[in-house]
Amino acid sequence: MLNRKTVDFAARLALATGCTINAKSLFARKNYFYPDLPKGYQISQFEQPFCEKGRIIIDTASGEPYEVRIRRIHLEEDAGKSMHHETYVSADESLVDLNRCGVPLLELVTEPDVRAPEDAAVFLSHLRQLVRYLEICDGNMEEGSLRCDANISVRRRGTATLGTKTELKNMNSFRHVERALTYEYARQCALLDEGQEVLQETLLWDPGRNVAVPMRSKEFSHDYRYFPEPDLLPVMIDAGWIEEQRQQLPELPRAKKERYQREFALPAYDAALLSEDADVARYFEAVAAQVADKKLASNWVMGEVLRACKESGKSISELAMTPLRLVELLEMVSRSEINAAVAKKILEEVVRTGHAPRTLVAEGGMAQINDDAALRRAIARVLQQQAGDVQSYLQGNEKVFGFLMGLVMKATSGRANPKTVTTLLREALADRKRS
Amino acid sequence: MHDFTNLHTIQQLLSDGATNCPALTTHYLAHIDEGAELNAFISVFKERALAQAEAIERKRAQGTAGALAGMVLAIKDNIVLDYGGTTCGSEILRDFKAPYTATVLQRLADADAIFIGKTNMDEFAMGSSTENSAFGAVRNPVNRERVPGGSSGGSAAAVAAGMCTAALGSDTGGSIRQPASFCGVIGLKPSYGRVSRYGLVAFASSLDQIGPLTRSTADAAALLQVMAGHDPLDATSASLPVPDFSATLEGGIAGMRIGIPKEYYEEGLEEPVRQALSDTVRFFEELQAVTVPVSLPHTPYSIAAYYILANAEASANLARYDGAHYGVRAGQSPSLEEMYVNTRSRALGAEVKRRIMLGTYVLSSGYYEAYYNKAQQVRTCIRADFEKAWRQCDVLLTPTCPTTAFRIGEKVADPLTMYLSDVYTVSVNLSGLPALSIPCGRDTQGLPIGAQLIGRPFDEGTLLRLAHLMERHFIPARQVLTNGMG
User: Fold this and answer.
1) pLDDT tops 50 at residue B194
2) Is B368 an 8 Å CB contact of chain A?
3) Is any Cβ of chain B less than 8 angstroms from the Cβ of A222?
4) Cβ atoms within 10 Å of A357's Cβ, excluding its own
C-alpha cells in the first residue's frame, strides 16, 4: 500500500526544491535477490518519477553560492539492513535487520553539478536542513534517516566532457562523504596522470582505514528487470492539491535568513544562526514578535537560550523557558525591575525548576533595588571598608572604580540597578574627593 | 440423508430443525473421507470446523447467526488463514504457516461461514489440470480418469463431489472457470478489484482474483456479497458500492443483447461443446433475449500476451521463495547464491520453474521491449475489443473451454497444448472483466460442458441473473452430486 503521508512529504520536498510534480507517476519493481529484500524486489519508481527538474542553491565556504540541479525525486521502499562481520556471530554468518523493510523513503538524484568534496558536504547539510524544516525527517546520517551515495568523476581543466564516474557508498556522516570524495578525487587524478583509465565501478568507503574499496563486480552488476508494479496504481496528482501544498509550505531557510536581515535589521551572522534550525527560528520569531529590540531578542536566543539547551540537553521546543517567558523576562529587564545578570540567573532557574520568571523574582527576593537611600548605605559601607582603594582611586587610578562597583553589587546580592549604582558611586567618590 | 447442495436448502433444513451445523459439517467431513481418492484436499480442519459449527449453532439458538450460517466452505490453498498451513501446492511452502488471515476469509468468517479445509491446486496456481501439485494430481469426480481442470481443481472437485457447500478458488487466466466447467459446477471470476486480494498468495498481481465455486447461482451471489467491497489493504480493490446480488438474481432478460464473439467459435472447438452452446443461445432467445454477432479481433494474440505478462509478474512475485525467508531452505550451501539455486531447484516444480524463467527472460534487458511491452500493447488492444463490443451488447456468451475434461497425463508432456486450453478465459483477466462458467450440457461421455458469460466491468449482477435462469434449465436436481459420489 502507498502511504499517503509519504506523498505529502514528497510534494513538500518537490515544492521546496522547485521540482515539477508529475501529474501521473508510476511505481516499478526493481528485481534482485538479496537477503535484506524479503520480496525479492524493491518497489521504486523508474519511468515517470514523482517529480523532476528542481534545484538547491548552496553556500560554499570557498566562494559564491551556486545552484545544484535536482534531476528527480522519487518514492521507494527501504530494504532491510545487512550486517556482516559482527562480533557476536561466527565469521561466516551474516545478520539481516528487517525492521526498516518496507518503510517509505524519498530518493533525490542531482545532476553532476557539485564541484568539490567540501561542497558535497555543504549540499547535504542544506538538504538536511530542508528535510528538517519540512518536517519530513530528522536527517540523521548516523542513524540512516539520511543516506548518500556519491558519484564522482574528474575532467581535465579546459575540457568539457565529464570523465568516467565511480560510485561511493557506505558513508554515514557529512565528514565521511567529504573524505571519501577527497580520496576518490585524488585516486582518479593519479590514475589519469599515469595515463591509466578510470573504471566505472562502485566502491565502499572504509572509514577505519580511510580508503574506498571496490565492490566485487557481482555485487552490483544487476539487470534489475524494472517493470510497472501491478500491486500499486499510478499516483495521480491533482493540480489544485499541489497548489494547496504550496500554500502550506513553511518559509524556507534561505528566505527566512534574508527576511531577518531585511525586517529585523539583524547582522548576517545572527540571521544565519537563527534560521539554521526550524525550531530555533520558530522560537526566535515568537520572541521577536513581542519585543521591540530585535537585536536584544536575537542576543538572548543565540546566547542564553541556546546555551541553556546545550546545558540541559533539551531541544529548544522542550525548554521550560518558553518564548512567552523570555518576553516576560526581557520586559522586566527593560522596566529595570531586574538587571541583566539577575535575568540570566532567572533564566537558568526557569529551565531548572519550570517556574515562571515573575514567580522566581518575587520568591527569590531578586527584584532590583532601585531605592537610592538603601544603595547609598551599601556604598558608604563599601567605601569605609576599602579605604585604601578609595585613596588609590582618588589619586587617579580609574580602574579601581570597577572593583568597587563589583563590591557594591555583591553587597546587594546582585540586585542593585547597575546604572543607579554607577551614578551613586561616582557621586560618593566625588564627595570624598571634595572632603 | 439430505443432499446439502446449496445454502438456501441448508438454511431451510436448519430452520426446520431437520439438521444442525455440526451434523452438516460431519456430513461433509464424511464425504471428504469417502472421496479421499480424488485428492481434492491438502488439509482438512476437522476439529476446528466442528468447533466453528458448534459456535455457530449457539449463535443460531440466540438468533445472532450471520448471513452465511450453514455454508461450509473449502478454500483453495493459496489463500491465507492464521491457522493451518498454506502450501500453494508447492514443496517450498510445505510447512509454511501464515501469520494473518486474508480479508475475504475474515469477512466470510464474520458472516459465519465454516472453513472445512484447504484444497489442492496446481503449484502456485500455474496449470490447467491440477496435475502440477507437489501433493499429487486431483481426479475429476465426474470421471476419475479425467483431470478436474485447474488450477482450482481441488476446489471444483470438492464442490462437485459434495465435500462442501461451496469453495473458493483464484482465477488468473481461467483457474476458477475452467475447472468449474470440467467438473460441472458454477464458477465466478469477479471483476478485477471487486474482491480484495489481500491474503491471496500472488501469482500475477494484475490478473488474480478470488471467486466462488458453487452448485447454485444463489450461493455464488451470497458469497460474492460477503467477499466484495473495498479493502484498504489492497490498493487495487475498487472503491465502488456493492449491489445487492441476490436481488439482481431475479428478473427477466427480454431485450437483453447477448453478444456471440465469432472468434470463440472457430477451429479447435469440440462439436459437443459447440452444440451445447447453440442450445444455450436458443434457450436465451426463447426468453426473448437478442443475440448479436460481435467480433473480438485480437483474441488470437491473447494466449501469447497472457503468458508473457502473467509469467513476468510471477517471476517477481515468486522471487521471495529463495530459502532466506519463506518456507523451505536447501541444506548446507557454500555461498548465498548456491543456497538460492539449490533451494529453488529442489523445491519448485517444473512448470513453476519454466514460467519463472520465461518471465525473467521477457523482462530482461534487451528483450523487455519486444516481449513485455509488446504484450502490454496487445493487452490494451484486447481491452479495446471488449469496450467496442459493449456498444453492441450487454453480455457475451462463449464456451468456457474448447473441450471437456481431458485425461490425466494427456497434456502434461506438452505445455503449449495445455496453455491453449485457456484460450477462451485469459482475455477476461487481461481486461479485468467479470465472467462466470455454468454447466450447459454434457458430451457423449457424460462429461460436463461449461458456458462462459462475460460481463461489463463490475456487472456481475447480469451474469448471475442469466446463470440463475440457466441453472433451472440445464442443471437437473442432484445430478452433479449423484455423478460425483456415484
Assistant:
1) yes
2) yes
3) no
4) 24
All domains of chain A, ordered by start, with CATH?
4-244 (no CATH), 251-363 (no CATH), 372-434 (1.10.10.410)
* DSSP annotation string for B191-243: PTTTB--TTBPPS-TTT-EEEEEESSHHHHHHHHHHHBS--TT-TTS---PPP
Half-sphere exposure of A94 (CA within 13 A, CB side): 13
Is the Cβ–Cβ distance between B107 and B101 less than 8 Å? Answer: no
Say how many C-beta atoms besides its own lie within 10 A of residue A395's C-beta. 8
Q: Which of B90, B128, B151, B196 is catalytic?
A: B151
Closest approach of chain B CAs to the CA of A233, in angstroms? 7
Question: What are A365's three cell numbers?
Answer: 527576593
Say whether pLDDT at A222 is over 80: no
Is residue B478 very low, low, confident or very high in pLDDT (cuts 50, 70, 90)? very low
SS3 A391: helix
Does residue B421 carry a catalytic annotation?
no
Cα B325 to Cα B328: distance, rounded to the nearest angstrom: 9
The DSSP line for B58-104 is HHHHHT---TTTT-EEEEETTB--SSS---TT-GGGTT---SS--HH
B 185-244 residues with CB < 8 A to A: 202, 204-206, 232-236
- DSSP letters spanning A402-423: HHHHHHHHHHTTT-B-HHHHHH
* pLDDT tens figures, A90-108: 777 788 999 999 999 999 9
Q: Which residues on A lie below 8 Å from B372 (Cβ)?
A: 227
The CA dihedral of B87, B88, B91, B92, to the nearest 10 degrees, is -80
Beta bridge partners of A28: A44, A228
Given CB atoms, is B3 within the 8 Å cutoff of chain A? Answer: no
Nearest to A33 among B204, B340, B363 (CB): B340
Q: Give the length of chain A.
A: 435
Give residue B174's region: left, alpha or beta (phi > 0; psi -120 to 50): left
Give the type of residue at B290.
Answer: V
Q: Which of B313, B360, B363 sits opposite A230 (nearest CB)?
A: B313
3 state SS of A73? strand
What nine digits make up the cell of B287? 426468453
Task: Tell me, yes or no, if B340 comes closer than 8 A to chain A by beta carbon.
Answer: yes
Residue B175 falls in the annotated catalytic set: yes
Q: What's the length of chain B?
A: 486
Cβ–Cβ of A227/B364 closer than 8 Å?
Answer: no
- Is-contact B129 B404, C-beta < 8 A? no
Q: According to the model, what pLDDT value does residue B480 have? A: 44
Q: What is the pLDDT of residues A391-420, one digit of tens each?
A: 888 888 888 888 888 888 887 777 777 888
Cα of first residue to Cα of last residue in chain A, in angstroms, is 92
A137/B180 Cα distance (integer angstroms): 53
As for the ipTM of the complex, it is: 0.93
Backbone angles phi, psi at B437, to 5 degrees: -110, 135
- Residue B214 cell numbers, joined: 458453487
Residues of chain B contacting residue A233, judged by C-beta atoms under 8 Å apart:
235-236
A279: Cα within 13 Å, side-chain hemisphere? 13
- Model confidence over A114-159: pLDDT tens digits? 999 999 999 999 999 999 999 899 888 888 899 999 999 998 888 8
Question: A221 preceded by cis ω (within 30°)?
Answer: no
The C-alpha atoms of residue B313 and residue B317 are separated, in whole angstroms, by: 6
Nearest CA in chain A to B234: A1
User: Which domains, ranges and CATH numbers included, belong to chain B?
Assistant: 7-251+435-485 (3.90.1300.10)
Q: What mean pLDDT do residues B308-324 have?
A: 96
pLDDT tens, position by position, B112-162: 999 999 999 999 999 999 999 999 999 999 999 999 999 999 999 999 999
Burial class of residue A98 (count of CB atoms within 10 Å of its CB; 0-12, 13-18, 19+) = middle
